[in-house]
Design goal:
heterodimer, A: about 250 residues, alpha/beta, Rossmann fold, six-stranded mixed β-sheet, four-stranded antiparallel β-sheet, 8 helices, B: about 475 residues, six-stranded parallel barrel, 12 helices, 24 strands, about 25% helix, about 35% strand
Chain lengths: ~250, ~475
């Protein structure tokens, strides 16, 4: 699914990722952990094609070199990123944004626009599955949303867009336990042998709901340790310093 | 990123082409002889000529205003030709020069289709003489007069003499006075008592002949209990030399009447260094004369190098209402100083001003508004909202609100915001699969929504397309 080799990423001329290798196979769930400022969010931004980042190295998505592609081109190919702080767009209501995104992606892939009744039916099913209040559809995207609404709205967008590679940047921050469960339920509903997931998080608690295959520790722009899901638990118990010095 | 943006932003102005038509043009300059020439060309009655000459005397004593937040080279008023017209007189569509029809088609307004499908009566102004008037028959049956102002001067002198300059006096301001002197054509509409005009009235203005200023004059009167919605759209061919445009629009509503006036302004904006482009000095004013009457201005301003325009309402009748909804975009090196004036004179009068200014590249956008409540205007209310959106780091936005309240029962509210399209917003939308152009268009349309919602349906579609086109890739 995703193959990254010797990736270097700078933001505003400062090198943040310094030679990183990562391979994510179809159906795998990867977790990236690390202290603040080690490059976790930057890694996700680089994979999704942010303006901020300038990347060198190799990045293949479904065997295609994507390092030069814009964020929208990557999205159309099946990359989705959920934001740590979803961005507000005043005056653009959520339903209009969702519908535009779904149809633009379809058009870019040479598919027909989704007829409104089919779109609405799918949307309603997913909203009740995620327990999202219908009122957000008519509200401006992310404007005045609570922390939980913002994150659920991200998951709703993800579910409506049917991505292949999902990047979640601290999806679990600022969520109460009920919202966390809904969000995890949404994520699990998308997991399949054809879907891959990269989760950036500080906490083990999300991993109580989502089964991770690999946990990576990022330090100074490099992956310094990779193990199975038990690593996240160990980190929580012992802290980074202990875990990294004992290895 | 920013080079990519500049590339898209500076793309060619779409309606930039010129129709070659033999025009009958006045020699350059302005003097009483030229005024007589214009008046004679138009076969006007003596009173009209005298009126023009009087305006000319006033204009000669006036100075060009300098208070606006605009900078442009001195205009040489003697280097302008004040009259140009297509040669033949045309009675039906078949007789129209095929080239003119082609021009309209390229602008996306096929007259015939518009006539048949949209149900819009079109009084098309090509250069300075109205060429075609459609749907007049249907309107005639309702007693609605919809024709060129030249025709109205000849056919309905009593209405013209009664109302012309009753809202914008001859010597109101420099540009209005110039217009009174040399106005060549424009639209006249009269809606009789208790008639609701069943269709959108529309005029498509277009500057065509080289070096000819465009001096439109529009007069719309809604008699007691009547209603009319009027759409004005503009587009001009690519031009290297600055062109002066000084229009006057006067609206009058009597008791219980309503006029809704919508504009899409897309004059040639000049290039990215500010070269070329139209100078647009417009005086638009409405008088709510009767009780319970209403005037609503909606404008989408995307073109012109210089825009100087303050559609206003004088709320004279009790319970009368004025509205102003505006989107003004300045990109390239465009400059706009625009806003509204609401003058409250009657009791319980109310007004709303919603202004959305968008600046990109080296564009400069100023909102200038005046809310005036006179001592006799008991319980007047105004709400003003004035938002600016900045795209990139070289543009500018200014706000100059003036509030003058002389009655303690008045309620006046003013809200203002300034925001910027951020890379984060664009990135977010792009990760959902929207291209950069689509993302900008989405954000801008969201920003302008309250204003676009005021436009008649087809006009709103046109306006949205124009907004996207004007701002494609404008984030740096």
């Amino acid at each position: 699914m995703l193959k990254i080799k010797n990736l270097e990423v700078s933001i505003a001329d400062k090198e943040v990722i310094k030679g990183l290798d990562l391979e994510v196979k179809a159906g795998e769930v990867h977790v990236v952990m690390g202290l603040n400022g080690t490059g976790k969010s930057t890694l996700l931004k680089a994979i999704s094609g942010s303006y901020e980042t300038s990347s060198k190295g190799k990045m293949y998505f479904l065997d295609e070199d994507i390092i030069e592609l814009g964020a929208d081109e990557r999205a159309v190919k099946g990359v989705f990123m959920s934001f740590q702080n979803p961005i507000e767009i005043p005056g653009v209501n959520t339903i209009y944004f969702l519908k535009t995104a779904v149809n633009e992606q379809r058009k870019s892939r040479g598919e027909e626009e989704l007829p409104s009744p089919i779109f609405m039916k799918e949307l309603q099913e997913k909203m009740s599955f995620l327990e999202i209040d219908k009122s957000i559809l008519q509200r401006s995207l992310n404007v005045g949303f609570s922390g939980g609404e913002k994150k659920k709205s991200e998951i709703l967008q993800m579910m409506m867009l049917h991505p292949k590679l999902i990047l979640l940047d601290e999806i679990d921050s600022g969520l109460d336990i009920d919202a966390l469960k809904s969000v995890a339920k949404g994520i699990n509903s998308l997991l399949s042998p054809q879907t891959s997931l990269i989760i950036v998080t500080h906490y083990n608690r999300l991993l109580e709901y989502i089964k991770a295959d690999f946990v990576h520790i990022l330090q100074e722009g490099k992956i310094v340790k990779t193990s199975d899901a038990s690593l996240a638990k160990e980190l929580e118990e012992k802290g980074y310093e202990d875990v990294l010095s004992s290895s | 990123m920013s080079t990519q943006i500049d590339k898209i932003l500076s793309q060619e102005y779409t309606p930039g082409f010129e129709t070659d038509i033999q025009s009958d043009q006045a020699p350059l300059g302005l003097n009483p002889d030229i005024i007589r020439f214009i008046s004679k060309k138009k076969d006007e009655p003596e009173w009209m000529l005298q009126w023009r000459l009087k305006a000319y005397d006033k204009w000669m004593k006036m100075d060009e205003p300098k208070w606006a937040n605009l900078s442009y080279p001195l205009i040489d008023y003697q280097a302008i030709s004040y009259y140009s017209a297509p040669k033949q007189n045309i009675n039906s569509l078949d007789e129209v020069d095929p080239q003119i029809l082609e021009t309209y088609k390229r602008l996306g307004i096929p007259l015939e289709e518009q006539k048949l499908l949209a149900g819009v009566a079109v009084d098309a102004v090509f250069d300075s003489v109205s060429v075609i008037t459609t749907f007049s028959k249907t309107l005639n049956e309702l007693g609605i007069i919809f024709c060129s102002i030249s025709e109205a001067i000849k056919e309905h002198p009593e209405l013209v003499q009664k109302y012309m300059a009753s809202v914008v006096p001859m010597g109101d301001n420099y540009f209005a006075c110039l217009n009174a002197t040399v106005f060549t054509d424009g639209t006249f509409a009269y809606i009789p008592k208790n008639v609701k005009c069943p269709m959108e009235l529309s005029t498509y203005f277009r500057i065509n002949a080289l070096n000819s200023g465009q001096f439109e004059r529009t007069l719309i009167i809604a008699d007691e209990g009547s209603y009319v919605s009027y759409n004005e759209g503009c587009s001009a061919p690519m031009r290297d030399k600055n062109q002066l445009h000084a229009a006057v629009v006067e609206l009058i509503t009597l008791k219980d009447a309503e006029i809704k006036y919508s504009t899409i302004q897309n004059w040639y904006p000049g290039d990215k260094d500010g070269k070329g482009g139209i100078y647009n000095f417009v005086t638009k004013r409405g008088k709510c004369l009767g009780d319970n009457s209403k005037i609503s201005w909606t404008q989408v301003e995307t073109g012109a190098a210089i825009t100087w325009k303050y559609p206003s309402c004088m709320l004279i009748g009790d319970n009368s209402r004025g509205e102003f909804y505006s989107v003004a975009i300045t990109s390239l090196a465009q400059q706009a100083d625009t806003g509204s004036k609401m003058i409250h004179l009657g009791k319980n009068t109310s007004s709303t001003i919603i202004s959305k200014g968008i600046s990109a590249m080296k564009g400069s956008n100023a909102y200038r508004g005046l809310v005036k409540v006179r001592p006799q205007a008991y319980k007047a209310r105004n709400f003003t909202q004035c938002d600016s959106l900045l795209i990139g780091s070289e543009c500018a936005a200014h706000t100059y609100p003036y509030i003058d309240v002389k009655n303690p029962s008045a309620q006046v509210e003013h809200e203002a915001t300034t925001s910027k399209i951020s890379d984060e917003q664009l990135f977010y939308a792009r990760t959902r699969g929207l291209s950069e152009e689509q993302a900008i268009s989405l954000i801008v349309n969201g920003f302008c929504k309250e204003v676009l919602n005021q436009l008649p349906m087809e006009f709103a579609v046109e306006a949205k397309a124009l907004l996207s086109l004007t701002l494609e890739g404008s984030v740096g």
